[in-house]
Amino acid sequence: MAAQGVRLLARSDRLSAMGITGVLPILIPALAMVHQVARRTRGAPPACVLAVDVWQPLQVLHRFGHHLKGVPHVCYLPPGPNFIGPSRVHAAVASAFRTIITPFPHQQRLFAEAGGRVRPGGHAGLQAMLEELTPLPHERRENLLALLPGSRTLEVEYSIPVQYEAARRVLERHPELTPVVGCASDEVAEAVARRFPELKTTRSARELMSRARFGILCSGTAVLEAAALGCPGVVTYNGPRLQQWEWRQFHAEKIAKLRAAGIASPYVALPNIISGEELYPEVLDTPSGPVAEAALRELAGDLAAKREALDRVTASLSWEDAGAVVADSVGEALGRS
Q1: How high is the mean pLDDT of the chain?
Q2: What class, spelled out in words, does domain 134-316 have in CATH?
Q3: How is residue 75 annotated by DSSP?
Q4: CA dist 308 → 138, 145, 215, 244, 312 (Å)
């Protein structure tokens, strides 16, 4: 962004977290970042605020910087992609933003029903990925077992041992497969090499998924990328005990009620949410045994038919140029053509 002439007020690219237990260690630097943005825009307020894949932190930003409340806001990749029914989130976001841009058809419908001005726009990450890579067709897939343990430190620490052991069990039945770990950073690659030196690694996780026959994937954006790249698999997630306690104590009952009311999807992986079916079996917070069993069931099934179902998910997304749609929406918010 800086190379394109953007003036950076603060950096948030390393402030990713899951849940309350993940937020606490980064709370002070996150608040410092918000305060810095508010302070440095006070004398020269921006003409527009563009929120990318974020919403609730804007409420904190407004407390520090009241001058930003009157600035038009545009939202790209709005919150709540797991919500498949109308909720308070949709109404709140619809009232907070001049325009909401999303690639997901269910979000387009729900935010429009809540009174928001919604525009379809492609997922920039998927668009860039498919410009760089051509996924291999099913019949030309290589005998690679892609392991994606995630990008956050805790995800990798707790996911890779489970994925490694699950892969070892899968290889007992499928010795033709070669497990390869797709690493999101050099730090992840070094951590994998220290713990499991016998495992092959690559820093090009997307290329790996474009060639692999199957994947064991940490829940998150990687699963949507895997669907777009035609890589079937199973979805895992393993976190520390404190995070599991937080989920049971604060979130599980609430999510169960939202699911019973038809607001939250019964699934966590985006391809499953979009399709309304479990295209990727979800084996979350479990040891390696159930993960391996789910993977073996999928490998014994019709992977070509599964690939066709993943292609339908990809085709259902909006593919309008994300940059053009966002730029046009910001121009409209500023009263320009």
Answers
A1: 92
A2: alpha beta
A3: E
A4: 9, 19, 16, 35, 6
Task: Give pLDDT, residue 313.
Answer: 97
pLDDT for the residue numbered 337:
46
Rounded to the nearest angstrom, the gap between the alpha carbon of residue 221 and the centroid of all alpha carbons in its chain is 3
Domain chopping of the chain, boundaries: 2-128+319-333, 134-316
pLDDT computed for residue 160 by the predictor? 93
Read out DSSP for 95-127? HH-SEEEES-HHHHHHHHHTT--EEE---HHHH
pTM (2 d.p.): 0.92
Q: 139: which DSSP letter?
A: G
Q: Find all residues with CB under 8 Å of 308, minimum gap 6, and list them.
A: none
Strands (E), 245-288: 282-284
The tokens describing 252, both together, are 């599980």
- Is the pLDDT score of 267 beyond 50? yes
- The one-character DSSP state at 25 is G
Cα separation, 187 vs 155, whole angstroms: 13
Q: 137-158, pLDDT tens digit by residue?
A: 999 999 999 999 988 776 788 8
Tell me how far apart the 2 most distant CA atoms of the chain are, in Å: 65
242 versus 267: which is more confidently predicted?
267
Closest CA to 270 of 261, 260, 262, 278: 278
Structure-block tokens of residue 141:
């897939």
